[in-house]
Amino acid sequence: MAGATTGLIAIYSFVGYFDDPYMLVVFTTAVVVTSSIGDSFCSIVMNIPGAGGAAATMIDGFPMSRKGEAARALSAAISTSWINGLIWGVLVFLFLPWYTGIVVYFGTVEMFSFLIFAMTCIVFVSSRYWFRGLLALALGVGVGLIGMDPSTAAARATFGWDYLEAGIQIIPIMAGLLAFPELVSAFRMKSEKITLDREQIKSQLVQGVKDTWRYKWDGLRGGFIGGFVGLIPGIGGAIADWFAYSQTVAMASKTGEKFGNGNVRGIIGCEGANNAQKATSYVPTVLFGIPGAPFEVIVMGLLMYVGLELGTPSVLADQHFFDMLLSSYMWSLLIILPLSYAFIKYAVYITNLPYQVYFWPILGSLIWASVQYTGLIEDYMMLGMCCVAGLLLKYIKFSRVSFLIGFILSPRIETLYIQFTTFGYGWKELLLQPLPATFLILAVLATIWGLFYNKARIEFV
Amino acid sequence: MKRLILSLAISIGIMGTAIADYTFIVPQKPGQGTTIWAGIVAKELEKHLGERIVIRTLPGARDIPGFNKYHNELRTNDKTVMVSHGGNGVSFLQESVDYNYADYESIGLMNLNIIAGKRIGNDMSHPVFPAGSGMVPEAFAMTMLLCGPDKTMNQYIDCFKENVTWVKGMSGSDRRLAFRRGDLTGTRENPATYQKHVESDVNAELWFHHGLLDPKTGTHTDDPNFPGYQMEILFEQRWGVKPSGEFYEAYKLVKSFRDGLQKAIWVNKGNPNKAKLVKALQDMANDPESMAIIEAKNGKYDWYIGAAGDEMRDTLMTFITETALKNLVKFNKEALGLASIYKEQLVK
How confident is the model at residue A236 (pLDDT cuts 50, 70, 90)? Predict the structure, then answer.
C-alpha cells in the first residue's frame, strides 16, 4: 500500500552511504520499477491496494484470487505492467530530450478539461450504481477540501485540529477505507481454503500470459493513458489506473462482459497504465525539474543530496546520467520479471493459508505505512478514524472507490479551478482550443453513453 | 477483539524512534527544500561534531505544526535541534503560531535571498505572478516598483489590485510549468532553483531581488551573486528617489524575516550543547570541502554562527513596529486575500 513514494522515503535513512551519485540513480530507478510491478501482489492476493493506482487492480484481481485464479491474475498483471514498462521506458529514456515541447503544451485549461473528462468516465462509465457513486465522489471531494484554503492560506474545516491543516493524508485513507474493512471481513469469515497444486499454478501462469496477449489492446490502451497522464505534471498517478480501468469497461460493453467479479480483462486494462505512468513522469522531472508524480519529488530530493539536480543544465548535459537512467530502468525491468514470476507461487500459497494467519502482519504493515507521515499519535488517531469510516461506508454500501477518487482529485480540481478563473479563462478557451474542446466533447459523450447505453458497468459499489 | 487490540499495541510498540546522538527537527516532508538542506548540512556537520545526526521530519500546514511541536514539547531535550526556514519567519509575523524566536539561541543561520524572474519581452507593468503566503515580499516589491513613491497604504493596495494578476492555488510544479509556458510573466525562486528554472530558460531573465540584510546596520545590501537588481536600486533608478515610507517599512519587515531566517538552526535557551554545536558549525564553515558541497546547493551566501546568529535575530526584532506590522497585515488581507492576523504581543 505504501507504493514507490514510501519505498523511496526509506532510502533517506541510508542515502549518505552512496559515494557514487550514479549508484543512487540506479537504486531509485530500481525502487520505482519494482514497486510498480510488485504492488499488484497486495491488490490481487490480499485485497489491499499496493499503491494508490493499484486499488483499481483489486476490483477484479481479488475476486479472481477467491475463485482460485490468483496465479493467473498475477501473471496477467505482471506481464501487462512489464510490457508497458518496456515500451514506455524505451520511448521515454531513449528520446528524453525530445519531449520538451509536449510537456509545455499542457497548461491550466488543458489539465482542467482533462480532469473533467477523466472524472466523468470514472463515474458514469465504470459504475453500475452511478448515482451512489456520484454521491460518494462528492463526499470524497468534500473531505479532500479539509485542510488549507488555497486562496486565503487559512485553515478550513479542521475543527481546530492543527494536524488537519495540511489535509488528510492519502495513506490512512486508503488503509482505513479500502484495506481495513476487507481485512476485518476476511478475519471474521470462515477461511475459504483454496488449494492449488504446482501444475495448476503453472498452467495459470501460462494462461495469464495468454490473457495478456488476447487482451493486448486493453493493456496497450491502458499504457497509452498512463503514459499521457505521467507526462502532465500535477495530475497524479492514481487517476491513470482508474481511468484506464473505466476505458476497459467501456470498450467491453459490446460483449456484455461483467466486471468486478473477477474478469482478467479488468486487471489488464488498469495494469497497463501503471508502469507507463511511472516512466513518462520522468520526462518533466528530468527535463524541467518539475515532478511528474508525487514519488518524483522524493527522487529529486534524493538525487539532490548527491549533487544531481534534475532540470539543471549540468544534468541535462550529463550523458552518463542518461545512460545510467536508461540502463538501470531496463535492467530493473529485466531482473524483476523472473523474480516476480518466481514469487508468484509463494504469493499464491498465501491464499491457501487461513486469513487469520496473515491478518496480523498485514495489519502491522497498514499501521506502519500510515504513520510514516509524522510518526506522532495524530497519525494513529487519523488511521483509527479512517478505519471506523471505512467500516461504516462498507456497511451502508457506499462506494468507497468513488470516495477515494473524489478525495484524491479534490485539491487538484479546486486549485485548477482557481487558476482557471484567475487567469481569466472561460468557456471560450474550453470550447475553442483543440485539446480542451476534445476533452469536453468526450466528457459529454461519455456521460450520455454511460447513462443510457453502457451495459457493462462494474458490479461494485 | 482482544487479539486485535494486542496486535495494535505490539505494532505501535515496534514503531520506536531511532536512537541518535542529535535529532534535527525539520517542519517539512522529505524531499522538500529545507529537509534537503538540513540533510546536506547535517552530513557535513557530523564530520566536525563527531556525533551522529538524524533528521526527523514533522510536516504540516505551512510548516507550522512541526515548529510548534518543537516549541511546546521537544525543545527541552538537549539533543534536539530545530531547523527552520524563511516561511516560518513570515508565519511568525502574521499567523497564530506557538513558536517564538526570542526563546531560542542560534547555532547558525544562512542569510539568503529570493530572486524574481520575468519573461523576456512581457509587459511587466501588469505582471501575472503566482500567489502564496511565501510570496508576500515579492508582492510588496513589485507594487513599489510599479506604483512609485509617496502613496498611502490604500493607494498601494488599489494599485496592486489594478495592475497585478495574482494567481492563487499554484503548487511549485504548477508555477514553474506556467512560467515556462508564458502563462505567468513573473516568478520567484531561491538562488539554487533560480538557476534551474529561470536562468536556464532562454525566454526568461532576472527581474529583481531583495538584497541581503546586514545585521550590524539593519540595512539591505546588493547581492553579489546578482548585482544591480536589488529592489531598492531598481526603485531609485526608476523613480529617482530611495524607497521610504510606511509601505516600505512593512516590506522591509516581511522580507527580512523571510530571507534573514531563510535557513536557521536553533536550540532552546540555556541548552548545554550549544557551545559544542556552534564550534562544530564554525569548523564546518572553515572547511572548504564542506562549504563547497553546501554552496553547490544554495549558492555562496554568508553564515551567521552563534552570537552572530543571535544578533541577526535581534536586528530582525527591531523591525517589528506597530505600524509596519499593521500595514503588513492590511496589505495581506486587502490586496492578497490572505487570512493574516495582527499580533499585538509581537510589538510589545
Answer: low
Q: Give the list of residues 6+ apart from residue B204 with CB closer than 8 angstroms, or none.
A: B117, B118, B119, B120, B179, B198
CA geometry: angle B6, B7, B10, nearest 5 deg:
85
Distance from CA of A430 to the nearest CA of B (A): 16
Q: Of all helices (H) and strands (E), which one includes residue B329?
A: helix B322-334
Chains A–B, number of C-beta pairs less than 8 Å apart = 160
Residue B176: list chain A partners with CB under 8 A: 288-290
Above 90 in pLDDT, residue A456?
no
Q: Which residues of A touch B177 (CB under 8 A)?
A: 103-104, 106-107, 233-234, 284, 288, 290
- Residue A253 contacts by C-beta under 8 Å, 6 or more apart in sequence? A453, A454, A455, A456
Q: Which of A9, A151, A421 to mutate to test the interface with B (most CBs of B within 10 A)?
A: A151
Q: B66 to chain A: which residues are within 8 Å by CB? A: 374
CA nearest B101: which of B288, B242, B267? B267
On whether any CB of chain B is under 8 Å from the CB of A162, the answer is yes
Contacts of A70 (CB under 8 A, 6+ apart): A44, A45, A64, A196, A204, A347, A348, A351
If you measure CA to CA, which chain A residue comes closest to B169?
A415
**A374:B60 CB<8 A:** yes
For residue A382, pLDDT beyond 90 = yes
Task: Confirm or reject contact between A392 and chain B (CB < 8 A).
Answer: no
Q: Distance between CA A373 and CA A371 in Å, rounded?
A: 5
Q: Any idea which of A184-193, A214-223, A255-264, B120-129 has the lowest mean pLDDT?
A: A184-193
Rounded to a whole number of angstroms, the CA Rg of chain B reads 21
Strand pairing category for B80-85 and B263-268? antiparallel
* Alpha-helical segments (H) within A67-195: 70-94, 100-104, 108-120, 130-144, 170-173, 180-188
Phi/psi-derived region of residue A318, left when phi > 0, alpha when psi is between -120 and 50, beta in every other case = beta
DSSP letter string, A375-417: -SHHHHHHHHHHHHHHHHHHHTT--HHHHHHHHHHHHHHHHHH
Query: Using 50, 70 and 90 to split pLDDT, how confident is the model at B207?
Result: very high
For chain A positions 432-451, those within 8 Å of chain B (CB to CB) are: none
pLDDT grade for B13, boundaries at 50, 70 and 90: very low
Q: What percent of chain A stands above pLDDT 70?
A: 87
Nearest to A162 among B56, B68, B171 (CB): B68
A281-312 tens-digit pLDDT: 888 888 877 777 777 877 887 787 777 877 77
* pLDDT of the residue at B9: 46
**Which residue in B60, B68, B196 is closest to A309 by CB distance?**
B196
Q: Which residues in chain A touch residue B18, judged by CB atoms under 8 angstroms apart? A: 13
Query: Each residue of B26-43: pLDDT tens digit?
Result: 999 887 889 888 988 998
Q: How many helices (H) and strands (E) would you count in chain B?
A: 15, 13
CA-based nearest residue to B5, from A363, A132, A8, A232: A363
Alpha carbons B279 and A428: distance in angstroms, whole number:
63
Please determine, for residue B266, whether its predicted confidence score (pLDDT) is greater than 50: yes
pLDDT of the residue at A457: 54
Q: Please, which residues have CB within 8 angstroms of residue A213's CB and are 6 or more apart in sequence? A: none
pTM: 0.79
What residues of A are in contact with residue B93 (Cβ under 8 Å)? none
Lowest mean pLDDT segment, chosen from A7-16, A338-347, A367-376, B195-204:
A7-16
Chain A, nearest residue to B16 by Cα:
A375
Stretch A178-200: mean pLDDT, rounded? 73
Residue B7 to residue A386: CA distance in whole angstroms: 18
* A15–B contact, CB cutoff 8 A: yes
